[in-house]
Amino acid sequence: MATLQSIRNHGTILLVVVGIAMLAFILGDFLNSGSSFFNKDLQNVAEIAGNKVHFTEYEKAIEQLTEAYKIETQSNDLNEDVSFQLRDQAWQMMVTDYTISEQAKKIGMVITNDELSNLCFGDNIHQIIRQSRTFTNGTGNFDPTIMVNFLSSLKQEPENDNQAAMLEQYKMCWGYWENAVRISHMQEKYASLLNKLIVINPLDAKYTIEARNTSVDVQYVLQPYYAVADSLVKVTEGDIKKLYEQKKELYKQIPNRSIEYVSIPIVPSAEDFADAENLFKSLENDFKTLDDITAIVNGNSDVLYDGRDYSIETIPAEYKEFAFSKTTKKNACTEITCNGETYSMARIMDCGYTKSDSVKLVLLASGEGTEDIEIGWVKATDLPKNISEPAFNGKKGDKFTVVNGTAEQTFMIADKSKPTPKVKLAILERTVAPSNNTYNALYNQAKQFIVANNNADSLRQAAASNGWLTTPAYAVTENAHKINDIKNSREIVKWAFGAEKGQVSDVYECGDQFIVAGLIEVNDEEYTPIEDVEAELTMEVTNQKKATYITEQLKSVKTLADASSLFNTEIKTAENISLISTRFGMMNEPAVIGKALTIAPNEVSAPIIGKSGVYMISVGDKKVAEEAINVEQEIQQTSIYTAYSKASAAMQLLQDESNIVDNRSRIQ
Predict the structure, then answer these.
(1) What kind of architecture, by CATH, is found in domain 256-267+434-524?
(2) What is the pTM (predicted TM-score) of this model?
(3) I need a surface site. Which of 139, 228, 419, 453 has the fewest CB within 10 A?
(4) Cα separations in angstroms, 646 against 188, 432, 580
(5) Mean pLDDT, residues 244-268
(6) Rounded distance, CA 170 to CA 154, Å?
(7) Span 209-253+532-624: which CATH code?
């Protein structure tokens, strides 16, 4: 009773406490389970030209491109580099799509369904479709029949799971091709519009012809900046800051990180080598004496024994003399050898016979309406065993049938190459790999290294004392696939963008090495800090001040001879300088070239501030090449040359102004 009364007396307080607890529970559930209200933007991987890109759209684009790549290359084996390249290509397609589509809306440019259909499977098939390997015949040319059959297959009902999976892959591929055609054609239409709007006029053409045909020989004196001692000019902090502000737009940067990492190779230990040697010694007697050694070899060797016939051209080089010498005998065996990290021994299972190196096969017609298919010359290693054995054991003109599932294929041996000596060689070979004990020991060593060196400053010195390599990786961006050329190092990139300057990472296994990284630089500013470009700015300001110093010295100089005497240098000549010249002598000096074509013959110029120093020049008579001025032809040729550059520059400008927000790093 006392307890109940106590509860009644404190009822208001309890209600408040319970109420707060329930509110916290509800808010917690709302903020976590129902977090989509607040985290809607987290589902978007990008924003392009004001359009939010949902992660499912991005992943679908990657999947479509990946399936198309697999079909085009006839390979499902995508390594790390290829996978990331496909992701980047899919991303660039999306950027181009959103950018050009947004511009198309503004100017009313569209691609109709009929127009797209005509480009994909109509009378005007686009080059993207035409160049696809999927739709080419045996001669490498586009075959409309193959494409029609492909499209027809998309409408079929699958009979089993395998067909359903294949049909889904084909649909995704066609989705990619259709989208690629649409984007490409949109760019082509936009480029065509630009080329009609931005034209070369007759005055431009006439000026270009005259500039190309008019040249002068230039005599000059150069006082290079390096010839002036740095002590003769004074560079202040204010000078550097002023130049930095003038050039600031050149120093725009993407947020990046710089790291320094320690590489700990995962290599076999002395114990691992001893274990491998002991294994070979335990197998040696059986390997040398047993009639059937397939189980021994295939259970212990990196090189499987399949009874293949080796010729002197196909046998591994290290066994060529052993297997094809005059004293070669059946069952001869090498001793155990260790070459680097590989233990090996070999035994001749058969020798003294000849076989053809290659055969010419024809796949015979399987029924009415089909034709023989000439496969051509093939080697045994090019064929599955059920085909290679009858093909190489038979005679010219023989026919043989093989069964693949429920289907039968009949081949004819159309021809065979001249038989050459062969041997059957069994190779017992194993490359020593780090054992679990070695792996764990190295991993623990790396862990202990982190504990003892938990800041980036001590990383390099401590690594050197352990005999490990320390390597920097500068300006790593958030979407970087890997660090330098380190395999499977994407996780290190993600770590770097979540760490603070000076922190040391955990241990990462990257291929055949453990990596421990230290974060040495964090750059999240819009522009590269002045400290990072101070050296180049200082050099430029120094050269500017040296230019002023040299110009002052030349103030009263009127002739090249006087300038040459003043600087104790020779008068040089640059021949056939025209407005289309890209070099002045060995230098890139556009200001000097421009001046050379504007001063009168034999006139000595005022000092010209160039990139490599200060010049004084004099020119001879202008030389005009004899060329008929054909303005129309010049307009046509220049338009062809500039068509791509105009479209490319316009697309780049559109992308630069699309305010792209790239958050792909959230999901990759």
Answers:
(1) Roll (3.10)
(2) 0.76
(3) 139
(4) 12, 58, 20
(5) 95
(6) 7
(7) 3.10.50
